[in-house]
Amino acid sequence: MLARILAILGAAGFVVLLAVDHLARRDLDPIERAISDYGRGQDAWIFALALVALALAKVSVGIALVRVGGGPATAGWIFLLDAAATIAVALFPTDLGAETTTSGTLHRVAATIAFLASTAGMLLASLPVRQGSGGTPLAVLAIAGACFVTAFGAAILVGRWEGVAERGQVVSTASWLALYAAIRMG
Length: 186
Description:
It contains six helices and no strands. By secondary structure, the chain is an all-alpha fold. It is globular, with a radius of gyration of 16 Å. The chain starts with a helix and ends with a helix.
């Protein structure tokens, strides 16, 4: 029951804090700019706190999936890796502009791992519950997350709309985590 509450609060807290960050940083275009840009400047602590909340949700769901065993356990381990990468994203600020630093490089690697791991975790964990109660919305959110990851890759290649693709992926992930906790965790 505690893991369920932590997962739901962590996911909801992430979305609320991301919205607060957006309101606090009106100078950043949410369509074009990456969410990692919120991690720079005087309000960087809001972004870091949002990522800690999201990592809490990922750990809660990850542990629950590992305890189930079998196929879902693989998804659980992926979510635990994802949570560690999410914390690393919070710890290492991104680079701005053409600047390349060790912190920025670690940030990019951790962010890539987090995006891919959360998508893989959602897809794997949705497979065994598709036919059960609540399985269809979980599968839809997992597929939406995968679509946003694909769109993010395309946005990087095109050089536009990176922000909206990232936000779509992280909000899909947070929504999936909260929904999974609500319908599958006791």
